[in-house]
Amino acid sequence: MRANLQLWSKIKPAFWDRRDSDLELLNYRRLWRTTFWLAVAVTLTPLMFLALINLYQFQQQYQMQHGEITSHLQRLMAISRVQISDFLDERRAALTYVSLANTFQELAEHRHLARVFSRLRQSFGGFVDLGLIDAAGIQRTYVGPYNLQGRDYRDQDWYKEVQIRGIYVSDVFLGHRNFPHFVIAVRHERAGEEPYVIRTTIDTGRLNELLRATDLQPSGDIFLVNQQGVLQTPSRLYGGVLAGFSLLSGPPAEWHGIREVADNQDRRLLLGLARIQGTPLTLVVVKQPQALLHKWDLLRINVIVMVGLSVVAILVVIWWVSSTLVNRIYDADLRRASMLHEAEYTNKLASIGRLAAGVAHEINNPVAIINEKVGLMRDLLGVSQDFAHKEKFLQQAAVIQDSVRRVSEITHRLLGFARHLPLRNEEIYLEALIREVLGFLGKEAEYRNIDINLMIPKEIAPIQADKGQLQQVLLNIINNALAALESGGEINISVAEQPGDKVAISIADNGEGIPKDHLQRIFEPFFSTKGEKGTGLGLSITYGIVRKMGGRIEVESEPGEGTTFTVILPRRQPTSNQPAPAAV
Predict the structure, then answer these.
(1) C-alpha dihedral, 308 to 314 to 317 to 320, nearest 10°
(2) What is the mean pLDDT of the chain?
(3) Which pLDDT band, with edges at 50, 70 and 90, does 504 fall under?
(4) Which domain holds residue 529?
(5) Which of 12, 98, 368, 449 has the largest count of CB atoms under 10 Å?
(6) pTM of the full predicted structure?
(7) Number of domains into which the chain is organized
């Protein structure tokens, strides 16, 4: 479960968990799901339709091929059955001819019977011995490898059967020499003569050759069984002669025809049985259709695998395309929202600029009157000789005039900021300027026991800049540093040369620091980390002034360790009258 969550966190689109209130007009998850599932439906529906058609066609071809295998098996059974029947009929006919072409007395002569046996072996082959049995069941003459002369067969079942049916074909047995063979016996009956029986033993080797000549490929087998299901010829799959055939659950006669069975390994087999008429033998043909249909199965599996891989590839591509498209829409909406915010901030700043210009204009009028009245008061004191506190009064008047001058400078700066007045460059010594700025804030630092350390090399040359605006930049940054410090904190101000004829002014405090998610927004208008105490305009105005002066501001901060603002300025300021770029 944890691995799945980790994988999802890696592949999850950027918009998935977004909950911006200004982007609620568009549900990105719903858009992504709609895009994804529509693309899946459009691409996979025809693919699955074609795959189902192919599988249906494969199934039809599979069944057709299965039917062809069954038909082929029936033809093989018919051909093999005829061959086996012909083989046995030839030898029965040969024995019948021997009985008709020779008299009992001729066959009773051993030399004559040996000549007949030799001709049978030369003409047909497979004959092992030949014997003559009289009407009493006694073997009168015998030619062969065994000592059967005088053997009494009167009480044996095969002799009784041949007396009734006129012909007898036995099961395969091993005999005295332990090799498989079977017996064919023919009864001869002629008017005026006593009946007798000619008996011969046939070697199964010729029978095996006939069966082996049948082409069943490696997946098939052909052999003979008797009525008890015992193998009469060797089987490639089920054992040698006289072994039991396990696929039969009853007498072979009940299994006539072709049927589908399962072996002990649960493989599906086609089993065909055909009775050899006039004998106790049944022809058995076994085929494994799955082996013959392996190519069809392999082709079907290949189609399924290819369809599966195609589906996975299509889903991956659709996922990527859908996520990319919705991500682009999401990014475009973010940029749109950012531009709307920026336009809103610009409007606010423009409104504040207009308000500040109006306020500055209104303040200038009473300030000018105050300045004139103070001048008049000094002139009057100049002609009065009897005023006791004249010197003290003149000092207070000078203080008032100085304050009026400062108010005029401030209103002039406000008007300059509102009207985007061009920079007024002058030569500035940074140490003197910084100490002048610290003069405004020294009382607060002293009251809060905050140490302010200056590290300014003596060899730092003066720069060309607007003194009032540079004062405003340093005042805003140092004031923010004081706000971030507790009592007993420390501020370090340093100046250093920079490559490219630039100067860097660093202001570092050991205060509370700025969270990382706020660092990208601290120069935005109206964004403040001071809560209700801040207006969010100080750093925004500072950023705009520094950009107008051709410099830049860098910020490094770690929560709980402090913040460092570095203002990098060129030694010579740009002379363009263009307004400062908007804060970002």
Answers:
(1) -90
(2) 79
(3) very high
(4) 423-570
(5) 98
(6) 0.46
(7) 2
